[in-house]
Amino acid sequence: MSFKQIQTKKISEIVREQIEERMRAGKIQPGDKLSSVVQLAEEFQVSRSAVREALSALRAVGAVTIRQGEGTFVNEYDFSGIFDPLKKERVISKQEMLDLFEVRKIIEAGTAELAALKRTGQNLQEIRDALTDMETASEESVGEAADVSFHLAVAASTQNKTMVQMMEQLADTLRRTMFEARRVWLFSEKKSLNRLFEEHMHIYEAIAASDPEAARTAMLAHLSHVETTIIEGSELA
């Protein structure tokens, strides 16, 4: 007799879900300021680090904005689009994955190039915030959300609304590929995840330096590495 694997949740994920439920129910409205980390930790009876990670996950998907020295503010957000890796999803075939990366390389290489030319100081801060969330995430779901947030922040740096809309339409599919990549890396050496972070840092540094060619090259190198990792390391048919 075989048993199904029990899916466990970390404390920060439970905190995030409870905050989401309040937002869905309208108990917390767009524009509202959330209680401080200390107050939320006391209310939920959890550690401050668990609250910070929950807020980072919400920020990574655009549900909240964290303003240094001011607090955390609620944004307009449609939670129906959030990808939950614990839910059963249609399996993406190997060919579909290859097709997706062809599209990503075409779109995101140009996005990074344009971002290096048109980014603002605020754009750089948003990209850097996503990097920080990626670096400090202790849960895979937070890391995936921060990864998506990074790529959307790069798109926003182009100041091109059509580009942003295209990337937002791809967001759910991006989460699927990032989940698959991190699942593969989860069973490999830690240095693989470190390399993933470094690749994102190279993209950020090129954009910060206003170097479009370097930004394009860094983005292509990153996407090619992720593509190879998924295709060679996963069980896609």
UniProtKB/TrEMBL annotation:
The record's listing under InterPro entries reads: GntR_C, TF_FadR/GntR_C, Tscrpt_reg_HTH_GntR, WH-like_DNA-bd_sf, WH_DNA-bd_sf
Protein name as it appears in the record: FadR/GntR family transcriptional regulator
Please provide, alphabetically and separated by semicolons, the GO molecular function terms listed in this UniProt record: DNA binding; DNA-binding transcription factor activity
Species, as recorded: Alkalicoccus halolimnae
Q: Where is the HTH gntR-type domain?
A: 9-77
Asked whether the UniProt record includes DNA-binding among its keywords, one would answer yes
| UniProt keyword list | DNA-binding, Transcription, Transcription regulation
Tell me the leader sequence span: none
Give any Pfam family that matches: GntR
Which PANTHER family does the protein's record reference? TRANSCRIPTIONAL REGULATOR, GNTR FAMILY (PTHR43537), UXU OPERON TRANSCRIPTIONAL REGULATOR (PTHR43537:SF5)
SUPFAM superfamilies in alphabetical order: GntR ligand-binding domain-like, Winged helix' DNA-binding domain
